[in-house]
Structures are given as C-alpha cells and as structure tokens.
Design goal:
Helices cover about 80% and strands about 0% of the residues. By secondary structure, the chain is mainly alpha-helical. α1 crosses α6, α4 runs antiparallel to α8 (about 170-195) and α6 (about 95-130) packs antiparallel against α7 (about 135-165). The relative contact order is 0.15.
Length: about 240
C-alpha cells in the first residue's frame, strides 16, 4: 500500500484542479482577512486582538469553503473512475483494500491541507498588524484549531468520498457533492438562527471547538468519529462491490 500511497500523493501534487483550489483558497483567505479584524467571529464575536483571533475566526467561518473543496475532491477522485485509473490499478494486481485506503489517506491529507491554507493565508496578511505576541497561547490555540479541523473536516470530506465510490463518475459525483454540502451549509446557517438541532453536524462542532477554551472536547470528537466511521464503512462497501469497467 505504501507504493500506492506515494503514487496517489504524487498524482495529487501534480493535479491542475488541486493546485487551482490551493491558490484560489489562499487568495480568498489573503484578501478577506481584513474583514475578520472588526468582527473575528461574526457580529457577536468582537474585534480581533491577535493572530489567534484571526486564525480561529477564519477556521470558524471556513465551513462555507467546504462546499468548494468537497466539490474539487469529488471532481478529482471521480476522474479516477471516469478515466479508468482505478480499473487499471486493479488489473495491475493491487488489492481493492490497498487501493481504497491509499486513496482515502492521500485525499484526506491533501484536502485537509487545502482547508488550512485559508486561515494561514489570513495570518500572513495580518502578521504585521498583530505580530507574534504570547507565543505559547498562539501555539495552543492554533494546535487545537488544527487538530479539530483535521478531524471534523475529514468527516465532511468523507461525504464526497462516499459519493464518488457510489456514483463512479466525475460529473455526477461533483454535482451531487456540491448539492449535498450546500444543503448542509444552509441547514447549519438557518438551523443556528432558528434554534434547530445542529449539534450532529461536524461543521457546527468546528465552530464550537474554536470558541471553547478547553482543549479536550469529547462531544466534537464523538461526532467526528461517528461520521468518519459511518461514511468510511459506506465508502468501502460501495467500492468493494462495484464493477470497474
């Protein structure tokens, strides 16, 4: 599996759409960072006082970017079915289990890095405004935000992965993923406003993680783990039984 994983990482690192996503999200983060200075986490969040507030505020608000990132993931992974890349890997003698897990690991790493580009771009933009003050707190808060982002963003990315393994078509997977993630984002926004149950959403738990002081947040960990386990199982079952033409 190690060779397959290296191959997946190489292919993603040379993928045109992936780098378009990286550059686009960096530019969005860089040029919108200024808007987080007066309101780090929305109208009730107050003004930013340090890079910690900028980073947490952009992680808090980056859930809308998951629509774009999940769609790019579905586009690239779906192409591996549309272009028969996966079928060729199976015919080459690689086991489906090795192919499946190499792709899941490579795509989660690549797209979690893409998600973190957004807040880091904002911190680069606002570095000269705030500087590096209270380095210990900065390291603690950034580490917490990064760890919970990795867990909870992975839970959302698994939706796109499952859709790709189920539909096995780049066009269909991209369209369905965009619609599903958009509907979930709408539900999050209106659900918070109308006091509907939103605790089960990973995107809501990301926001809770960056606005809570405590490092250990069992509810966020549980929600993320459940989503990942469920969609990992669904994805594997879909891939294990699918026909590769």
């Amino acid at each position: 599996m190690s060779n397959l994983l290296k191959m997946e990482r190489y292919q993603l690192s040379h993928n045109f759409f992936y780098w378009c996503g990286i550059i686009g999200i960096f530019l969005i983060g860089f040029f919108t960072a200024e808007t987080y200075v007066p309101e780090a986490m929305g109208p009730t969040g107050g003004a930013a006082a340090s890079l910690v507030d900028i980073f947490n505020g952009m992680v808090y608000d980056s859930t809308f970017l998951l629509i774009l990132m999940s769609s790019i993931l579905a586009l690239i992974l779906g192409q591996e079915f549309s272009c028969r890349t996966i079928a060729l890997e199976v015919n080459a003698g690689h086991s489906r289990k090795a192919i499946f897990f190499s792709k899941v690991i490579a795509y989660l790493i690549a797209f979690n890095l893409m998600a973190l580009v957004y807040p880091f771009a904002g911190c680069i933009r606002e570095f000269f405004r705030f500087g590096l003050t209270n380095g210990g707190n900065l390291f603690f808060q950034v580490s917490k935000a990064v760890l919970y982002s990795l867990l909870l963003n992975s839970a959302t990315f698994f939706i796109a992965i499952w859709i790709c393994f189920s539909l096995r078509s780049s066009t269909k997977a991209t369209g369905v993923t965009a619609v599903v993630t958009f509907v979930l984002s709408l539900y999050l926004g209106y659900g918070m406003m109308l006091k509907l149950p939103v605790d089960f959403l990973p995107t809501y738990q990301i926001r809770e993680a960056v606005t809570t002081i405590e490092f250990f947040q069992p509810w966020a960990i549980l929600i993320g783990a459940i989503w990942i386990i469920v969609f990992l199982a669904f994805s594997w079952l879909s891939f294990r039984k699918c026909e590769l033409k």
